[in-house]
Design goal:
Chain A is an all-alpha fold. Chain A contains 21 helices and no strands. The longest helix of chain A is centred in the C-terminal third of the chain and has 29 residues, at 278-306. Classes of the chains: A mainly alpha, B mainly alpha.
């Protein structure tokens, strides 16, 4: 009889204020799962996060707590920033820096497109303490592992909301960027053609590039050594030419394995009493501001350069500097084709997109330098 | 459109310089306010819901305008160094290939 009563005890907890909040979190988790499956928005992360949100918001959930598996995984891989760093090895192995190395000056657009991070830092400082404002600002890096890493190092109280915001907006890049680009450019500017001349990049350059980037970024921003180093390590595995099996493992098995653990574990931060808070809505809003001003920063920088350049650049490639790879590059390329079906700027946009990955990691290191 | 853009850009640059100058003056005052708020939150139990309280402090925007400037300059400096190194790498390796 007592066992039967215990069953109803847990169910009865749902008829309290806390219980209602848990039910709301089930709906939020369900919405993330729906977006992942039906709309195919970043399914690799949103689905585990959505399901994890349901797991941790059940009464007396055994998934969390001192011996809960999600808590164990959290302490093993998130609290010490290990999972995002290992994922970066996989991401580095997936990236081809060729289009960027053949035209290195495109990197400046990647730098300009990080403006949203620092602008959002100023905005968030009006509402949050420094460490939380900096962690929220890094949503503008448009890079999940960087956001999780920085939020963890700074000890932010909003890791769950920051992660959900970062991955959600990365998936929404095709919706967020085009209106901002159209607002800041004219049709004539969007139709500017950029002829692509493929320059051969030697294997030596491809091998030395990740090593040198790590050294340079590490000297300037020591806090970024882990982020940059693991990204470049993955790239070095890819480019060295003698570790094909490791490269393939890093790109597929390692990346997928860590993604599974990362997604479901970060959801342990989405407990109702922490997530259902006005701050979460504010963080979502500030994340959107970050992405908008990233796009605006890149586009306006390109327009500024055009005042001085004889051969104009299509200002839309500035928007590709946001680190959402490869989506942002494709968005810009599609917009160019829409204006002029003969205007192919995919290679330039991809080069800028890849440089955004490097710039976002450097920005993360600078933020850690300022506030760490 | 071009003139309007130049005017807007000039206004933005002037406003940023002004804000930077103001923030340099107010930096000490504002950081003291933020630091006391942070120390108060540190005293509370870690992970407590009370830590999640948000406050509205408009001066906070100006506190970090300087960091915005330094951050963007820092990114461009690092990117600039990387661009130069990449050009040199390309030049050296293409020179070796010709030999």
């Amino acid at each position: 009889m007592q066992d039967l009563l215990k069953l109803f005890e847990n169910a009865a907890e749902l008829i309290t204020v806390e219980g209602v909040k848990m039910v709301i979190m089930w709906l939020i988790g369900g919405a993330l799962i729906f977006l992942a499956i039906k709309k195919e928005m970043e399914p690799t992360l949103l689905l585990p996060i959505g399901f994890g949100a349901i797991l941790v918001n059940l009464p007396n959930s055994g998934a969390i707590g001192p011996e809960g598996p999600l808590s164990v995984l959290y302490n093993a891989g998130i609290a010490n920033e290990l999972f995002p760093l290992i994922l970066f090895i996989g991401i580095g192995a997936m990236i081809d820096f060729g289009p960027l190395l053949s035209n290195p000056k495109l990197m400046v657009f990647g730098g300009a497109a990080q403006f949203g991070i620092f602008f959002t830092l100023c905005m968030a400082s009006m509402f949050f303490a420094d460490k939380d404002a900096a962690s929220i600002a890094i949503i503008g890096a448009a890079d999940g592992p960087t956001s999780i890493f920085v939020a963890n190092v700074l000890g932010s109280d909003y890791k769950g909301a920051i992660t959900v915001a970062a991955y959600s907006y990365m998936a929404l890049v095709p919706i967020i960027q085009p209106p901002v680009i159209k607002l800041l450019t004219t049709k004539k500017e969007r139709m500017i053609k950029m002829p692509y001349v493929q320059a051969e990049v030697s294997k030596t350059t491809r091998i030395l590039f990740p090593i040198i980037i790590t050294i340079v970024a590490g000297i300037v921003a020591p806090a970024s050594v882990a982020l940059v180093g693991f990204l470049m390590f993955g790239n070095l595995i890819r480019e060295c030419g003698v570790l094909d099996s490791l490269s393939e493992t890093a790109q597929k098995v390692l990346a997928n394995l860590v993604t599974i653990f990362l997604g479901i574990t970060i959801a342990s931060q989405m407990q109702a009493e922490r997530f259902l808070h006005p701050a979460t809505l504010l963080i979502m809003g500030l994340g959107l501001v970050a992405f908008i001003f990233d796009t605006a920063g890149g586009v306006l920088f390109a327009k500024l350069l055009n005042l001085f350049l004889k051969t104009k650049v299509n200002p839309m490639i500035g928007a590709a500097g946001i680190s959402a790879f490869p989506m942002s590059g494709r968005v810009v390329h599609k917009m160019a084709l829409k204006e002029d079906p003969q205007n192919f700027i995919l290679m330039q946009a991809t080069g800028v997109n890849v440089s955004g990955q490097i710039a976002s990691v450097i920005a993360g290191g600078l933020i850690l330098n300022f506030f760490g | 459109m071009k003139k309007a853009f130049i005017v807007i850009l000039t206004c933005f640059v002037l406003a940023s310089l002004f804000a930077f100058a103001v923030s340099a003056e107010n930096a000490d005052e504002s950081s003291a306010v933020v630091e006391s708020a942070e120390s108060l939150s540190e005293e509370k139990e870690e992970g407590a819901v009370e830590d999640l309280e948000i406050t509205f402090n408009p001066a906070g925007f100006l506190t970090h305008v300087g960091k915005m400037g330094f951050g963007m300059i820092g990114i461009f400096v690092v990117i600039g160094v990387i661009v130069i190194i990449t050009y040199l790498l390309n030049k050296i390796s293409s020179g070796k290939k010709k030999e």
